[in-house]
């Protein structure tokens, strides 16, 4: 099964039961003594909070060997104690997934983009029905749902989860999807920019989260990026820190854009722009899903267009938000740009978009 990574941007306060649970789940702590060492809490306090988590059924504790003459007691998250749901909303796709509390993905499926409506209430009703059906398909009760995360291809103001100027659905501006989901459930609902979620997913499990530095650049129908520094997601005003789409590019626009920037990055190098450019050259390409597949198959013209897009996204222009991004590393035909910090790039094309991530390390760091 696929295992999800921790969410460093939403880490509970140090020493709380939620924090102890996350430390165990992420692999940072395997025992009560680990928890006491990391949090600085007294062993007796850790014991009381761990006992509460054990009684709730979210942790298990087993002896798996000897340590200092005593049996070591190892803590684990009990995945059977609940489920969480995730919805990825894109400009041309919808994806729904369910995982257990240990992070094991139980189901992950593509859904029709027709689920998305200009009316957010109608959209949420449809998505909730999909989540309910998926829970049934994996043999889980909706009463065991513990939380829901929703990814949106637009800036999201935190902590209220308010969507800001979404180009893919302008009628959703200032909408709080969590309020609509509250009509169906009382569990926590976290709405986040999709590129920020990409960055969170790429944040390495284990080790010191405070040393985690991740830059994730998403190339899909549109372009976005997520930034993690010292284990914290940087969102900026109204969630716009990673919005590099409307910085000026050196190439020529292939599609119109609502922003006032001539030849903005989205109009030049986004998936939608690349599809339009190839169509103008006489190619018949349906969408970004087909674009990604042709690139993965090594189509020379498509690969060259993807490389050009990578150069645009990663090109260094002093003073602009897209400066120093190692942007496009395509599977089998990839390259990466290295400037300043040491950057390790990788790409994971999916059926609907190519995800590019770059894990950054401080110069001289690990």
SSE topology:
Elements: H1 17-25, H2 32-39, H3 43-56, E1 59-67, E2 70-77, E3 83-89, E4 94-100, E5 105-111, H4 120-137, E6 145-152, E7 156-157, E8 162-163, H5 177-181, E9 189-193, H6 194-202, E10 214-219, E11 223-229, E12 232-233, H7 265-269, H8 271-280, H9 288-296, H10 300-314, E13 342-349, E14 354-361
Parallel strand pairs: 3-6, 6-9
Antiparallel strand pairs: 1-2, 3-4, 4-5, 7-8, 10-11, 10-14, 11-12, 13-14
**Overall geometry:** globular
What string gives the helices and strands in order?
HHHEEEEEHEEEHEHEEEHHHHEE
Q: What strand order characterises the main sheet? A: 5-4-3-6-9
Return the structural class: alpha+beta
Characterization of this structure:
With 366 residues, the chain is of the alpha+beta class. It folds into 3 domains: 8-78, Winged helix-like DNA-binding domain superfamily/Winged helix DNA-binding domain (Arc Repressor Mutant, subunit A, Orthogonal Bundle); 82-192, ATPase, nucleotide binding domain (Nucleotidyltransferase, domain 5); 203-361, Nucleotidyltransferase, domain 5 (2-Layer Sandwich). The chain has helices at 17-25, 32-39, 43-56, 120-137, 177-181, 194-202, 265-269, 271-280, 288-296, 300-314, and strands at 59-67, 70-77, 83-89, 94-100, 105-111, 145-152, 156-157, 162-163, 189-193, 214-219, 223-229, 232-233, 342-349, 354-361. The strands form 4 sheets. It has a 5-stranded mixed β-sheet. A hairpin with a 3-residue loop joins strand 10 (214-219) and strand 11 (223-229). The longest helix has 18 residues, at 120-137. The chain is globular and about 70 Å long. Residues 1-10 and 316-366 have low confidence and may be disordered.
């Amino acid at each position: 099964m696929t295992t999800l990574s921790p969410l460093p941007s939403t880490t509970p306060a140090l020493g709380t039961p939620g924090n102890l649970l996350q430390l165990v789940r992420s692999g940072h702590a395997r025992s009560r003594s680990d928890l006491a060492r990391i949090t600085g809490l007294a062993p007796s306090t850790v014991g009381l909070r761990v006992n509460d988590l054990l009684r709730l059924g979210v942790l298990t504790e087993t002896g798996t060997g000897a340590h200092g003459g005593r049996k070591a007691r190892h803590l684990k998250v009990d995945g059977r104690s609940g489920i969480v749901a995730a919805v990825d909303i894109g400009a041309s796709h919808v994806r729904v997934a369910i995982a257990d509390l240990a992070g094991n993905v139980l189901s992950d499926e593509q859904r029709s983009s027709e689920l998305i409506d200009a009316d957010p209430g109608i959209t949420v009703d449809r998505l909730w029905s999909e989540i309910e059906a998926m829970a049934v398909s994996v043999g889980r009760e909706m009463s065991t749902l513990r939380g829901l995360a929703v990814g949106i291809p637009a800036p999201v103001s935190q902590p209220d989860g308010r969507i800001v100027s979404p180009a893919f659905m302008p009628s959703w501006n200032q909408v709080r999807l969590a309020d609509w989901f509250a009509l169906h459930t009382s569990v926590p609902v976290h709405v986040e920019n999709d590129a920020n979620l990409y960055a969170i997913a790429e944040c390495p499990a284990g080790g010191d989260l405070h040393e985690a530095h991740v830059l994730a650049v998403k190339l899909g129908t549109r372009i976005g990026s997520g930034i993690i520094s010292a284990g914290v997601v940087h969102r900026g005003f109204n969630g716009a820190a990673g919005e590099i789409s409307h910085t000026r590019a050196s190439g020529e626009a292939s599609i119109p854009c609502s922003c006032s920037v001539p030849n903005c990055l989205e109009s030049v190098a986004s998936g939608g722009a690349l599809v339009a450019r190839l169509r103008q050259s006489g190619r018949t390409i349906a969408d970004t899903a087909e674009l990604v597949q042709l690139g993965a198959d090594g189509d020379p013209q498509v690969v060259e267009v993807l490389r050009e897009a990578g150069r645009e996204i990663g090109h260094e222009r002093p003073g602009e938000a897209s400066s120093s991004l190692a942007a496009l590393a395509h599977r089998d035909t990839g390259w990466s740009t290295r400037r300043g910090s040491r950057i390790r790039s990788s790409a994971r094309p999916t059926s609907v978009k190519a995800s590019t991530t770059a894990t950054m390390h401080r110069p001289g760091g690990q």
